[in-house]
Amino acid sequence: MTVLIAITLTSVLVGAGVVVFTRDPARQAVVLGVYGLLLTVFFMVLQAPDVALSQLAVGTAVTPLMVLLTVRKVTQSKAQKEKDR
Fold it and tell me: Which residues cross the membrane (predicted)?
């Protein structure tokens, strides 16, 4: 069990680094969703299914979706302002 925890913890650490070093906001939202999935697996390995379910709902689905919608809205707003000039 300790080896499995070490493997999942390492994947979570690598995933965190990938999220931090991703520059494009849209790509970062997708990577954040994958990172949420890695955390979900980590919590399941630690035998915390309630935390894993919460992470799956919020960290994997809702937060990246809200970031993507915000990026889309900001991009459309900037394009509209440029068009109006």
Answer: 6-22, 29-46, 52-71
Query: CA 61, CA 67: separation in Å to the nearest integer?
Result: 10
The pair of structure tokens assigned to 68 is 């993507």
Q: What is the 3-state secondary structure (H, E, C) of the chain?
A: CHHHHHHHHHHHHHHHHHHHHCCCHHHHHHHHHHHHHHHHHHHHHCCCHHHHHHHHHHHHHHHHHHHHHHHHHHHHHHHHHHHHC
CA distances from 81 to 33, 76, 77 (A): 30, 9, 6
Quick check: 32 and 19 in contact, CB under 8 A? yes
Would you kindly state where each structural domain of the chain is located, as residue ranges? 2-79
Predicted TM-score of the model (pTM): 0.85
Please answer whether residues 19 and 31 qualify as being in contact, where contact means their C-beta atoms are separated by less than 8 angstroms: yes
